[in-house]
Amino acid sequence: MEGFTAVSDYTLLTGATGLLGEYLMRDLLADGHRLAVLVRPSRKQTAVERVESIFQMWEKSAGQLLPRPVCLEGDVTQEELGLSSRQREWVAANCGNMIHNAAVLTFHGSDPAGDPWRTNVEGTREVLRACRELAIPNMHYVSTAYVCGSRQGLIMEHELDEGQEFRNDYEQSKFTAESMVREADFFDQLTVYRPAVIAGDSQTGYTATYHGLYMYLKLMSVLVRNEEPGPDGRIFTPVRIDMNGDELRNVIPVDWTSQVICRLFSTPEAHGGTYHLGPQIPVTPREVIEAGYKFFNSYGVKFRGSEDVSDVPAGEMEAAAYENMTMYSSYEATDPRFDTTNLLKFTADLPCPKIDEAMLHRFWRYGEKDRWGKRAKPKASVSLSVEDYLEKMLPAQAAKGMNGSRNGSSADAQVLGLEVVGPGGGQWRMVFSGKDSVSVEPGLPLNGAPLMRISAKDFRALIEGEVQPAAVHLEESLEGDFPEGIAERVADALFPTSRERKSGNSGKNRNRTSFPGEDRKTTRKSTNPTSADA
pLDDT by residue for the chain (534 residues), tens digit each? Predict the structure, then answer.
């Protein structure tokens, strides 16, 4: 497709705002990958705002500023992924890899036009169509280990269609989707990741969703917290469970899952394989209950196995437990064992953390603090959108950026990558043609091109003329072999206030740009653009 000069080898990620997607965005960028994300807006936030909220969460926990991906507003369930023709041109010119991670965990859906079929199957069909039409050569597909359905015993990584039955529509929809991906004949390479049940963060307990293991943890918390302790201070929980307590549960922490996928993605020798992401030591229901005894100071659960007793609940607590456990009743038997031979070839030094008592306690603490997903999430706070500013300063050229600029094709053009880290930041390519022509396109240039990396706070200080002279500060932000005078050209194009002050032509507030929530205090130059206070 015509319209864009190649910027770089970007990877397009779907499902970026889901639990695993949040970690993949952070970890892929931390590993140095160029990343674009396909994100749909929510009822209250634009796609950019959703991504910004996630990165501000990561910045708060990490204590440092982080780079932003290129954000494309779209939807996997829409024709052409909901992208404009210009956005599709950009993807075709710059994305060599697709990580298709978008999926929903809806267990039952009788309507084929609804979920899980709409997202898991039809969404995958649209992603495949886009990969074919936009010539994306490499697919990394996030499936699930439970495409094995109700099979038992050892499930090999190379197996898929073994005539298995499925316990719900989710399993069958993911099986259908993986089959479709494998049937596509236009990929140079296909890599498939099959995670088991994904739980929260092994270190913090963080989660953005309360399915799977967290559903049981929430149920235990709600039931126990509604009971009064006995004279001895312990809480009695008379619940009988139709298991023996030693059934195996293949549950993996989300941070490890992302770390392993990123390792495989970053290892060319691993591409083309199929990988089960499962624990070396599964957790059991008995371990979960006993961890709960210590966390809540409770007792009273009985594993009755297949004991022939009345199905009538023994009391209100047991009735409430049964009512809420119905969704996962088909998973009460022990899990199969997932072969991880392929996985261990490349990740033997990254063993899956055992979900033990301490980790389960972290899960409970986070869940209760988060009110099991009901706590209001903080909104992104951005006083300056660099993208909006670039469009304001270079309106004609910036409008062509994601919309098909052809600038930069001349042999004498100077190309510079601009990466603004922190709130409101992003990645762009500035192209200087001739004496006065300046254009900007999304995405960093090819590796080896000079790069200017600066914090969002310092970028704003330059706008306000609070850092003088601007060209000197910008030159200190340059990396790689850059042409002489490029810092001055950037300063002239983006920071005219600084240029006018340097020439002595600015009045007290002349050409001062105001932004929501601006801080009038003088901003000092930071020597580290990624420090938390930069």
Answer: 344 555 569 999 999 999 999 999 999 999 999 999 999 999 999 999 999 999 999 999 999 999 999 999 999 999 999 999 999 999 999 999 999 999 999 999 989 899 999 999 999 999 999 999 999 999 999 999 999 999 999 999 999 999 999 999 999 999 999 999 999 999 999 999 999 999 999 999 999 999 999 999 999 999 999 999 999 999 999 999 989 999 999 999 999 999 999 999 999 999 999 999 999 999 999 999 999 999 999 999 999 887 655 566 668 898 988 888 887 888 888 899 999 999 999 999 999 999 999 999 999 999 999 999 999 988 889 999 999 999 888 864 444 444 333 333 455 678 899 999 999 999 999 998 877 788 899 999 987 789 999 999 999 999 998 888 888 989 999 998 888 889 999 999 999 865 554 444 443 333 333 333 333 232 333 334 555 544
Q: What is the CATH number of domain 386-503?
A: 3.30.1050
**Class of domain 10-373 as given by CATH:** alpha beta
Q: Using an 8 Å Cβ cutoff, are 265 and 28 in contact?
A: yes
* Spatial CB neighbours of 509, under 8 Å, sequence gap ≥ 6: none
Q: What is the pTM of this model?
A: 0.90
Q: Where are the CATH 3.40.50.720 domain residues in the chain?
A: 10-373
Q: Are 413 and 438 in contact, with CB atoms under 8 Å apart?
A: no
DSSP E strands in 398-525: the ranges are: 414-421, 426-433, 437-442, 451-455, 478-479
User: What is the DSSP secondary structure assignment for residue 118, as one 8-state letter?
Assistant: I
